[in-house]
Write a structure and sequence with these properties.
With about 350 residues, this protein is mainly beta. Helices cover about 5% and strands about 40% of the residues.
Length: about 350
């Protein structure tokens, strides 16, 4: 079992499959792995074949009924060569940072899907194990933020003989250039960020994605019938460094009067390490404000935070978490405390660059 995560001018123009035709900026890619032709999803996003960016692997079609995502209908698989890396090479702007999200859907849970490693620009990201999602008939998504360290970003699937007896596979790959302000408090000269949780508190709907989020980040719902409140605000995304979609401020969890709001979030235990934590707040009442403290695992995260309907965010770049995490929001004013959204990333060190001949 794999260990847990503790993920010439003309030539360049030809390798920009989505930047000009869609709203993603700069060098951004949506790749439908194993596909022969471009596909368009229900949001109007164009996914291009991955063939121009990888020189190994074989394409296969999955015959699974009822797939809502066209990119899950094909995959690219690679041979089991212990120690080998099979890499995508993507032209990028070396002065930017990129959201990297591969998607995996094996189409069956028997035999057990292969497990393997992900490496980006020579940095070990995480081990991929999709067995639980396969049993549920679901796809697996991994997400991280990496700095571009050269004119090409290499995304590699690594064969680890200790995991399984089959080679790696992939169905889709997104590499999306982020604005310079997004997650800019992280020192990307030394660290990359692996997503643990990104949550829209109080939401009972679908995952919020593009076009609501301009970088196609996934905001997972967090229903709670006892504390959920909906509202409508004209929050401006540009007022926040991380540019959250305005809709994440339209749902909230609000404490009962004279009681703290206590959440177990993220919903999974974490290893003892440093994490990036960002929390987002907006008063559910127009022309109103409320003041509260935020504690995480009994340690003060922020004191006397004043929140209005215009919204507010707070973050820590290296906050120590371990085990299950409790977020406790305690009122310091007449109105009860609330929370709208949050993100948690694990931090991991940048490794040695992958050289060109590794991308074979």
């Amino acid at each position: 079992m794999p260990p847990p995560f503790t993920a010439a001018v003309l030539h360049l123009l030809l390798l920009l499959p989505i930047a000009a035709g869609q709203r993603f900026r700069g060098f951004s890619y949506l790749l439908d792995c194993g596909a022969e032709n471009a596909t368009t999803d229900s949001r109007g996003l164009r996914w291009d074949p991955d063939g121009p960016y990888v020189s190994a692997g074989s394409s296969s079609a999955l015959h699974v009924e009822g797939l809502l995502d066209p990119t899950l209908a094909t995959l690219r698989s690679f041979p089991r060569k212990p120690g080998a890396k099979f890499c995508y090479a993507l032209p990028v702007d070396p002065n930017r940072r990129y959201l990297v999200r591969p998607t995996f859907f094996y189409g069956t849970s028997s035999p057990r899907p292969p497990a393997f490693d992900l490496i980006v620009d020579g940095t070990f990201w995480t081990a991929v194990d999709t067995a639980d999602d396969s049993l549920a008939g679901s796809a697996s998504h991994y997400e991280a933020v990496f700095p571009a360290r050269g004119r090409n970003l290499t995304f590699c699937l690594g064969v680890n003989a200790n995991y399984t007896d089959a080679g790696p596979f992939i169905n889709a790959l997104q590499v999306i250039q982020l604005d310079d302000t997004v997650y800019n408090s992280t020192d990307f000269k030394t660290s990359a960020m692996g997503l643990i949780a990104r949550t829209k508190f109080g939401s009972t709907g679908d995952v919020e994605r593009y076009p609501d989020d301009s970088f196609d980040r996934y905001w997972q719902p967090f229903p709670d019938s006892k504390h959920a409140v909906s509202s409508t605000h004209n929050v401006t995304s540009a007022d926040f460094w991380n540019l959250p979609p305005p809709d994440v401020f339209n749902t909230a969890l609000v404490a009962e009067q004279n009681a703290p709001l206590v959440l177990q979030w993220p919903p999974i235990p974490l290893q003892n390490d440093s994490y990036y934590v960002a929390l987002y707040f907006a008063d559910t009442l127009d022309d109103s404000s409320r003041i509260f403290d935020v504690n995480i695992n009994d340690y003060r995260f922020v004191k006397d935070l004043t929140v209005t309907s215009a919204g507010h965010s707070v973050f820590a770049t290296q906050w120590i978490l371990s085990g299950l995490t409790r977020v406790i929001v305690t009122s310091k004013s007449v109105l009860p405390p609330l929370i709208n959204a949050g993100e948690v990333f694990g931090l991991f060190p940048i490794g040695r660059l992958t050289i060109t001949r590794d991308g074979k």
